[in-house]
Amino acid sequence: MKSFPITVESVRKAYGSYLALDDVSLEIEAGEFLTLLGPSGSGKTTLLMAVAGFVLLDNGKILLGGRDITRLPPNKRELGIVFQNYALFPHMNVLANVEYPLALRKIPRVDARRRALDALARVKLEGFAQRDIAALSGGQRQRVALARAIVFKPRVMLMDEPLSALDKNLREAMQYEIRRLHDDLGITTIYVTHDQREALTMSDRIAVMNSGRIEQIDTPERVYHRPLTRFVAEFMGEANIVPPGSVRRIDGVDALRETLMIRAESFHLDPAFAGPDGVALEGVLRAKSFRGENWLLTLELDTRQEVLISVPATLAAGCADLAPGQRVAAFAPAAKVHAIAGAKV
Amino acid sequence: MDPALAADARRERRFFLSLSLPALVIVGSAAILPILWIVRQSFLTTAGEYSVGNYEKVLSSGLTWSALLTTLELSIGTLAVCMLLGLPLALALASARPRVANLLMAFIMLPLWTSILVRTYGWLVLLRRDGLVNAVLTGSGLTTEPLPLVYNFTGTLIGMVHYMLPLFVLPVYAAMRDIDPNLTRAAASMGAGLGLAIRTVILPLSAGGIVSGSMIVFIYTLGFFITPAVLGGGKVNPISIRIERTLSTFQDWGAASVLGLLLLVLLALVGVTFWAARLLLTQNKLGVAHA
Amino acid sequence: MLDAYPENRLALALLWAFSALVLAFLILPTIVVVPLSFSASDLLEFPPRAYSLRWYENFFGSATWMAALRTSITLGTLTALIAVPSALLACISMNRLGGKTAVTLQGILLTPSVTPGILLAIGLFIVLAVQHLVGTLFGVLVGHVVLAIPVACIVLLPALARFDWNQVQAARSLGASWARAIGGIIVPQLRISLLSAILMAFLTSLDESVISIFVASGQNSTLPKLMFLSLRDQIDPTIAAISTLWTAIVVIVVLFVTLRQKS
C-alpha cells in the first residue's frame, strides 16, 4: 500500500466558549504510527474527527499527501476509521459489513468478495464471513472493524480508542496485532488513546495533548524520560517533581537549583548504582508497601513534599527491615534526572 | 474564523435544516396557515369587507356564552371524573408486578386505539332508554324507571371521560412507576400510614404526570366535537358544536372564525395556567431541597 | 410500591376492586358491540335472540359503505406514505441540529397534535374553500398528513435518539453519500420503528373524523364520516359490524406493538 504524510496546520475548533482545539499543528510522516494521547477533554478525539472530516474546523488546514482536504466531505477522503464502539452495521453480516465500502466503489462482486475475504483473513477471521454481528465477541467485532477499515485500501488509518471496550489480556494481544497490521501494510496511522502504556507500546511517536493543545510530540522514550512539561511528566507515569533545593549531587554539597523530574523507578537505595554524578535526596519514610515485583516507599522530604520510590524486589534486600519514621536516603543516576524548565511545583 | 470554513459549517447546518423542509411545508400550509387564515376571516364580513362586526355579533350573543359555559363544564367535569377514576387506577397499576401491569395496560391501550366512533356507538347502545345499563338497573330493582343517560349532558360526559381516561392515566402511571419504591418503604419505616404515604410521597412525586395528564384532558376536551354531537342529542352545545352549526347551517365563515379564535384563546389560557402550575411545582421542589 | 403496607389488606383490596371496575368501564363499550353485530334482529336487543351475519353482509354488500372503506384505505395509505418519510427526515434534522433549533422545529411540527381538531378542520375548510378544493380527496389527505406527522415524529424521535450516529459516520468514512447513508444504514435499522410509525399514521388517518366531516364531500366520504352521519340519524346495527371489524384490527395492531416491545 502506498503511504501518505499528513500535515495539520494551525487547526482551531471552538464549541461556544470552549476551545476544543487551540491552534494545533502536527506533521505525520508517511507510514508513521502516531498516537494522540491525553485525558478526556484534551481534544484528541476532536483532532482525529477533524482529520476524518466529521468535525468542521473554525480555522486551519489539513493536508493529506500534500493535498488540502480541509473542505473535502468525509465520504471523499478515503480514510479507514475504526470507531470506539466499532460502529459495525448490525443489520448486515460480517461479510456484508466488509464488502460495504467496496460496493460503494462499484467494485465487481467477485472481486469484492475476494478482497473482503482477504481482509478477514488478515485479521484472522477466516470462516466468520456469514456470522451476524450480534453473535460476535468484543474482540471479534474489533477485528471486523479493522477489516472493514483496511479493505478498500484507504490512504490513512484513524483509530479512536479502539481497544477501550476490551478486557486487559485481549487488549494487549490486540495492541500487538494492530501494530503488526500497520507494519505489514505500511499505512500511516493516527491512533487515539488515553492509556499511556498503550501509547508507549504501540507508537513511533506520541503527541501528548492537554486542553486542546499538543504539549509534546516525541518518541515514546523521550516523552517518558524527557518530558517537556510537568503535565507530560505526570501523565506518563509515577513522576516525582522535586522542588529546587531538595536534591544534591552525590559528589557535591550544594543543592541543585532546578525543578527536577525523577521517576519512582529511577531511584536506588545503594549509591553505587547511581554513579558519582548521580543525585541524592533524603527524607523520612512515611509508608512502604510490597507490590510483588517491587517495593513502594514514600519519603517525606524536609520541605514536607512526598517522593515516591519504587525499588525492584531483587535489589531490595533491606526494604523489609525499614521502619516508618526512619530517615532514608535515595539515589538516582544523572541520566534519569530531568530538569523541567519553567515548571511550577 | 476562516470564511471558507465558516461557509462550510453554515452549509452543513442548512443541509440538516433542509431535511425538515417537507414536514415544515406540510404543517405550515395545512395547520399554521389555516389558523392564521381564521384570524383574517374573523375580520371579514360576508360582503368581504374588514370590520369587527363578527366579533360584535358573536360576543353579544347569549348562545356564545352558554356554549362557552358548556365547554368549560364539560372540560372541568371530564377532568374531575378522570382524576377520580384515573388516580387510583394509576396507583394500582404502578404498584402491580410489571407482568400484571403490562397485561392490564392492554385494557387501556385497546380503547385508546379504537375509533372514537366505535366507542361512541358502544355508549349509545349501552346508555339508551332500552339499553344494557338501564336494563340492568331496572332489572335489579335499583330504579323503577329507566334513567335518561344519553342524549344529554350525562351521556356526553360519560363518552368524554371514556375517551380521555387512557390519555390521562398514561402520564400519571408513567410518573408513579418512576417513583423509587424505597421511598414509600422509607415513609412506612418512619411511621407514615398508607393514606399519609400516598398524600405526602406518591402524589407530590407524581405531580408532574398529573399536570401533564390534566393538560392533555383540557387540550382535547375544549374542542371536542364527535361526542357532544352524537351523545348530546342536540341538547349539549359546546363551542365546537356552535362552530359547526354556524359554518354548515348559516354559512357564516366570519362568525365561525371568531368562535374558533375564542377556542384558541381558551386554549392559550389553559396553556398559561398549566405552565404556571409547572413552574410552581419546580420552585416548590427547589424549596424543599433548600429546607 | 405499596408493598410497605401489607397490613392494609382491605384498603389495597378496595383499590384493586375499584381499578377493576374502571378497567371494565374502559373496555365495556368496545366489547358490547361484538354480540350485537351478529344479531339477526333490527332492534338492538341484548343479548340478541338469534344470530346471523346479515349486518356484515349489509356492510360488504353496500356500495356506499364499500366506497367509503376504499376512500379510507386509500387515504390511510397515502397519509402513511407521505407523513412517515417527511417525519423521518425532520427527525434526523432535529436529532442532528439539537439545541434551540430542534426545540423550535419540534414545537412547529407538533402544533397539530395540540390544536383542537375542530379548529384545524374549519381553518382547512376555509383555506380549501378559497382554493375551490373542498370536497376533494386532496383536501382531506392534507389534513390527515398534518395530523400524522406529529404521531410519526413521536415514534421516530426516541428511536433516532437510541440510534448510534457513529454508524452513519462510519458509512460516510467508507464512502457513502448522505442519501446512501440514510437509505442504507438508518432506514433498515429503524425498520421496526418505521413500521410502527406507518401503522400509527395509517390508523390516525383511518380514525380521523372531524376533518373528514368538514372537508370530505359526498362522493369521497370516509368511513368515519359515514359512520358519524348514520349515528346521528338512526342507530344502524351495520355500525356494530364495522365496529367489531375495527376492534379486531386494533387488537391485532396492539398485539403486534406490545409483542415488538417485548422482543
Task: Please tag this protein with its features.
heterotrimer; A: 345 residues; alpha+beta; Rossmann fold; OB fold (Dihydrolipoamide Acetyltransferase, E2P); 6-stranded mixed β-sheet; B: 291 residues; mainly alpha; MetI-like fold; disordered C terminus
Q: How would you describe what is shown here?
A:
The complex is a heterotrimer of chains A (345), B (291) and C (263). With 345 residues, chain A is of the alpha+beta class. Chain A has helices spanning 44-52, 94-104, 109-122, 138-150, 168-185, 196-202, 220-225, 230-236, and strands at 6-15, 18-28, 33-37, 59-64, 67-68, 79-82, 156-160, 188-193, 205-210, 213-218, 239-242, 248-249, 260-263, 279-290, 294-300, 306-312, 327-332, 338-339. In chain A, the strands form 4 sheets. In chain A, strands 6-7-8-3-9-10 form a 6-stranded mixed sheet, sandwiched between helices. Chain A is elongated and about 75 Å long. With 291 residues, chain B is mainly alpha-helical. Chain B folds into 2 domains: 1-42; 58-290, Orthogonal Bundle (MetI-like fold), CATH 1.10.3720. Chain B has 14 helices and no strands. Chain B has helices at residues 3-19, 21-42, 53-59, 62-95, 98-113, 116-127, 132-139, 153-177, 181-189, 194-205, 207-222, 226-231, 239-248, 253-290. The relative contact order of chain B is 0.12. Chain C is mostly helical. Chain C has a domain at 68-240: MetI-like (MetI-like fold, Orthogonal Bundle), CATH 1.10.3720. In chain C, 79% of the residues lie in helices and 0% in strands. Chain C contains 12 helices and no strands. In chain C, helix 3 packs antiparallel against helix 4 (99-114), helix 3 packs across helix 9 (191-207) and helix 3 (63-97) packs across helix 11. The model of chain C has no long low-confidence stretch (mean pLDDT 89). The chains are: A alpha+beta (345), B mainly alpha (291), C mainly alpha (263). Chains in contact: A-B, A-C, B-C. At the B-C interface, helix 1, helix 2, helix 4, helix 5 and helix 6 of B face helix 1, helix 3, helix 4, helix 5 and helix 6 of C.
